[in-house]
Amino acid sequence: MSHPDPYGSAEPRGWDRPAPALPWPETDLEPGPWRRPAPGQDARPDPVDPGAYARPAAGTGAYTRPVADPYPGGPVHHDAPWPPGGPSAADRRPEDEFPTARIAPVRDEPTDQLPRVRDEPAPEPPPGRRSRGRRRASAERPPTTAPGASRAGRNLPAAIGVGLALGGAIVVPLFFFLPAFLAVLAAAVAIGIWEMARAVRRSGAHPPLPPLLAGGVITVGLAWFAGPDALCLGLLVTVLGTMIWRLGDGPGNYQRDLTAATLIAVYVPFLAGFAAMLAAAPEDGHLRVLVTLVAVVLSDTGGYAAGVAFGKHPMAPTISPKKSWEGFAGSVTAAAAGSALLLWLLFDVAPWWGALFGMAISGAAVLGDLAESMIKRDLGVKDMSNLLPGHGGLMDRLDSILFAVPTAYLLLAVFVPVVV
Questions:
Q1: CA neighbours closer than 13 Å in the CB half-sphere of residue 154
Q2: Per the structure, how many domains does the chain have?
Q3: pLDDT in tens, 191-225
């Protein structure tokens, strides 16, 4: 029982108060303007005033319909009083009891006019070919997996195979037909120039390729036949030819293109010219090239093995994150040991001088690798090209050799003087 009404009414408040009497029984009410009609009652909602059907007429006490009938044209006249029991059955229309009856029905269109979908089996792929998409693995057919890269970031089997092929392409002409080595060297220089020119275009520079290719091959040939002075002359001719060629494209970005062309001319054909001079040495030129290449290979192999097994301290993390001081120690050790033995056997040089030769070659090879890594990082490329599987481009293999051959040429000129 609730408290008495503070305004003076003795009737209870809240849920205990009895419901007021309605003009006619309403046994089932729903929220909103729609009402479920009881038998004999009007079911039409008034969109303006839901209680318009329950207004007493002035002075009569009877209930009338609204003046603005929302359903004009019906049989009931406006302002006609409802009977005490509500509207009669004659006053109600079908849409009064079912408001959705005013909605136009959706016509059921015959489906015979629609094209039939024929249930045809999927075409089978031709024999010997697999259809596109992924194959579902089963017990008889395990899932295929791509060969993963090693810890050093290489596909090791492909790298070994390509390395052996490159070594054969150098060693075979070196020992059996020496002039063919010059052709191999000239082809390697041309490919290296093309890769470098292609890579530097990412920075916006466009060095002229034809004078670089022609000048690079001429530089290597001059070094082979005429020695160091001709090598410097070939570099000068290449740079001058590039400058003159580039004038035909106008003054726009001239300095940037010429700088890139000079870098390529010095980095590839000029350094490769020392390999030509090593091979052109009378009587033992092929052995000089051999000991240099073996020292470079031992340096790379020793550095790779030591870096994978013990590498923990990065050597140059901003340039080449995978190079470590432990790997560098392995490179120097392997190159020193191998060069000491090889120079003693081939040139009768004291082992400590051979070890010094190997250490110098290893240091130059590592510097060459870091130099190219810095160039690639500055250009935003991972490899110079994808020409060699497991290695990237040819310049990714020549980077350490290009820095090693000038070092080997100078040291061997001291340790093993050329006999004219």
A1: 21
A2: 2
A3: 999 999 999 998 889 999 999 999 999 999 999 99
